Amino acid sequence: MTQPQDILQFCPKCGSANFVFDGSKSFKCASCHFHFFINSACAVAAVIVNNRGEILLTRRAFEPEKGKLDLPGGFVDPMERAEESVIREIKEELNLDVVSLEYIASFPNEYIFSGFSVYTTDLGFLCQVKSFDNMHAKDDISGFEFIALDKIDYSEISSDSIRNIIMAYEKLI
After folding, report:
1. Do 162 and 71 touch, CB atoms closer than 8 A?
2. What phi, psi does 169 have (nearest 5°)?
3. In 3-state terms, what secondary structure has residue 10?
4. pLDDT score of 98
5. Where do you find CATH 3.90.79.10 in the chain?
6. Closest Cα to residue 25, out of 33, 13, 37?
7. To which H or E segment does residue 145 belong?
8. Rounded to whole angstroms, how far apart are CA atoms 108 and 160?
9. Which of 127, 126, 42, 41 is nearest to 82 (CA)?
């Protein structure tokens, strides 16, 4: 009941109830002919590792998956480059300054927010930060911890895409 075809009933342009789902990935309004596509939003996730090789994982402060482990990151703002988004999100969530980043991989995700399925393409980046000295949890995370890769409980990870990004990083090292 979170799928767009179950939630969207009216054309966002004219308000008509003649807003028909094509059975795949778009709606078309029979009244004003507005064509609305269900596209993937872009999100970023940062793999940050300390000098012991442990990965920095955060705890989600809000639903979905409140309390679960996650990689720091978030949605890319309109007209923002993914690289800029990683830098901004890491500063907002952890007060860390990213000094370098390298693309790892991307994975699809379904993010259910307010009872609605938001489809994302989650881009993973390996990031180095200037220092961990002033790190603190803020924004939408409740805490953080460094965990050795072989000690990660993957059942505690918030989504398949984040699990996949961590596993893609493991294959690189």
Report:
1. yes
2. -65, -45
3. coil
4. 98
5. 41-172
6. 37
7. strand 141-147
8. 8
9. 42
* CATH superfamily placement of domain 41-172: Nucleoside Triphosphate Pyrophosphohydrolase (3.90.79.10)
Encoded amino acid at 118, one letter: V
Distance, CA of 89 to CA of 109 (rounded, Å): 18
Alpha-carbon distances of 69 from 19, 103, 107, 144, rounded to whole Å: 38, 21, 17, 8
Token pair recorded at residue 81: 């480059």
Q: What is the pTM of this model?
A: 0.93
The residues of the chain scoring below 50 in pLDDT are none
Q: Could you count the other beta carbons within 10 Å of the beta carbon of residue 93? A: 23
Task: Specify the length of the chain in residues.
Answer: 173
CA 165 to chain centre: 11
Placement of tokens 């918030």 in the chain: 158
